[in-house]
User: Fold these one by one.
Assistant:
Number 1:
Amino acid sequence: MTDRLYLRHSTDKQTNARQRLALKTLIEAGAPMYEDPATSSRILSIHRKGFQQLLDEAAVGDTIRIADAARLFRSVADVLALRPVLTRRGLHLRVQSGLLSGIDLAADDSGTTMVVNVLASVLQFQRELISENTVEGVAAAAAAGKTLGRPSALSKDQAADVVTAYREGAAVKALARQYGTSPKTIRRVLDDAGLREVPDDLSALLDGDGHDESDGHDQAVDADPVVVVEVPGLVAEHLAEVADDAVREALRNGKTIRRGQGYLVRATAPVSVHVAMIEHSATALMQSPAGRKAHRIHSDRVTAARITP
């Protein structure tokens, strides 16, 4: 049985120093350590590179140890996606110190489930409160006439050249290499010019937004694969009115399948869109037993689709 340490911080301006201090004894004992630096808690834990490596290397009976719960999960959706994975793999999850240190957060009993769900709800509330305060701060700064955001990676002349080159058939990734920036920056320039109609969730998967690229460079690893997930009818009904075009489009284009008195929607979309569905539906569906069951089933299906080669 091995203790495996997991550490995460949200931005490149933060460090894992406090977490390392809390886990100092285990680190000094040589426990394997897995990190996700500068990684937002909005990315479900099972989709983070460092945590995926931990899952790949862990054996039945191993214990995942974290400095505090927020380093691993900070939303109900994350907990609902994470716990079934840990249970199926026979893994334990413990916070190193504090009130929760005596509880295996991966235990599949009703008491632990209640504690973890309440904890996740509190952490999610904290995160949303931080987001609200940030939005208010940005609005206040904008009202005061302050310039917001980082400087543009491309000058106006360079942006104009990018638009011209794209119209002439240049690929997004080739343009990104030419100007020493990221494909995302190039896509943003093209979006501002009204040249693209591909949603961002899909465009990240495309090689040059449909332009052929023949310069001999290796293709990027598909980080957001398109997968098929059967969305329970109760979840689909809740998501029908959410303010997320990609989610609504995926459900609208999905195939409705009747099963007994219920139904499901077989939706084909990038993993990021399926994860967005989980996030959008978490709070509302947790209000009833049927909703919690539908949400758990949906989360398990997204998880299975994500980790299946």
Number 2:
Amino acid sequence: MANRHLARSVAMQSLFEWDFNGCKDGNIGKILDANVGEFAPGMEDSKFAKELVEGVLSNRGKIDSIIEKAAPEWPLGQVAMVDRNVLRIGLFELLFGSRKEVPPKVAINEAIELAKTFGSESSGRFVNGVLGTIYREIGEPGKEETSKKKQIVESAADLPVEAKAGGVVYREDRGKQIFALVHDVFGYWTLSKGSLEAGEDAPDAAEREVREELGIDDAKVIEKLGQTEYIAKDPEKGQIRRHVTYFLIKTTDKELNLTPSGGLDDARWFSPKEFKDLKTYPDIKPLLEKAIKKIKGEEQ
């Protein structure tokens, strides 16, 4: 067994025991030492096992919150104990580990192998699904803008393209406009969007996506706002170019009912005055500003 895989196995067994005995952080050192002695005597990389265990515990609040949001149909307390702690290790490596030492694909694959070894028949698929969902979203915070303001790097031209469509959704509220934004597990407010289905054009896809994601019935495309393109990471395809076409979309619905999905945890209405205080991705506020100008007739 490779040394680092063995270290991950010992870390998982130690976290399992810690979890089983009531999550008492003060006991983890003794638990880890005992497991190293029993399952990996003479292991050269025991330091790595310690880093994993301590890293999971010190970031447990954020890690557990992201797991719950990425798998909303599975409250953390109902997730099998093995799966829960494998996810904690995998997510710690994805979000807080060194990508040079442990690339994301390696972190995910190692977690899947741990789940298959120590969990149930379905554990590998479950862990793959949750970490894959989170990994797809990781492309957002570090995404590389490839719009007119930033030239596409030459190597990006050969990457596969994933077409998406989304919208700046607004409604009238006492003579003024308010706008619907969705919140992701990384703490950013962004716009509702999704992939085009077979035979679907971008405007139809945008209307369908905002209806499904925001839980609204009325959604009408007014006009096209623009396009953005960025480099993202897919757990199966690797790097891809995500090409998103955004539309100005009007609704008369007042209530937003976010469809639970991996990566998103909230949807709210905001007035333009509130935009400046929101944490958003670089391309979102310019799109919102353009939408406001379109509504006011200041931009053709």
Number 3:
Amino acid sequence: MGLQAEPILARLQPVKQSAIINIFVSAIRFSTSSPSPNMNDLKSSAQEQLEYMLTEDDDAPLLTADDNIKVEVKECVNRLFARFIDSVTAFFSGTTESLSEAGNVQLFQSYLTDLSWACQILSKLEIMREFVEYWSDASEKIVKVLEQGSSTTEVIEIKLRAVEVTSKVLEAIGYGTVILPTAKRLQVLKVWLPFVRVTKPLIDSVTTNCENAMLLKLDGEMWQSLESTFVSIILALPSGDQADILTEWLDNEYMQYPDLTEAFEVWCYRSKVAKRRLSLVGDEHAMTNSF
């Protein structure tokens, strides 16, 4: 083909792994750096390409992450989360007055959107544990701040983004990707279950009546998945804790979502079986003593 073909053939050569790693590291740092709003398009593009680099489709992923890459990703996400928590903490220190202020709305939307995306990267790399623990520990503060906001479309969108992040965290807990102690699982459930229960009707009302409904559109599969996750987490708790949660659900006006009927049915069945088994054990013990 001659000298004319050499430039074309050069472009077809495999890219060096070191070059791929360098691009990935630069992109993950930029994507989690919370750049100014006028760079949102660049940030979104970088985030999309990072996902693509890690995606296995007809071809192998462009990058196979080693331990060094995983450490870099975790550190970048941790810094992003730390900035978000600093903003949350500002509400409790009195330096920030209202979530509804324009600057706060934009800031929280950006942080939560980036954290939701970051969860996908962490999940692909199977390194969700740290983030799940951090989010669980901070959940009570996060919800308190979100509950301070008004019912404007912008604030409801922030709540929606928080639900998106929480759904990924709870999914990791509910399906055993991340193992947390029972007390911590119960605590995170008690924080987010009431919040989601009240927030979903708000989102539904806005998407039905508001001109900006597309901003709040959320995949129906996510709501179904979140509901299933709640059920899974509840059924993995001790029976007494399950009973407390189900009692509160049955007494609540927002019992339609999440629908915990499956958890209720399983709890009833398990309780009945346990009672029968205990009764049999008691009968056997009595017979043994009679001899």
Number 4:
Amino acid sequence: MDESQEFHDVFEGVKVVWSLRKIVPNTNSVSFYPAADKSFYLLKFHRSHRDFVEKSYLNHVLEQETNMTPADVAENLMPKVANEDVETSLERLIQALRTSKEDAEKKAKKEAEMKSEKEEGTIEEDSSKEDAEDKKLEEEENANGKS
């Protein structure tokens, strides 16, 4: 993404604009080790949405990214053809993040289902053991009562 480019995102009806900014150190000296540029992303949104962006949107973005490795992010940001624009690369990254999140949710849901099935199976086993113990006690009582 270049400094002159912006990326527009909408999350739960709130519009957010991402843009890259760079701070180039203003030095008049010559050095073999020039000072590094400082880059950061600037987020623009309506001031009435500040709390929402700080609490929900940024958490949403961070949660999505944690399901992908930096290599995956870089791969999705790399242009696939020579004349591909930045918007297309960012859209591909966002789609990959969404897919990654959906896959993680499906996996978590499947694990929860398996856990609940296992617990239900354990409960059934426990109840069948209790039934067997009850039958054994009844048989012993009947045997003791008949004697």
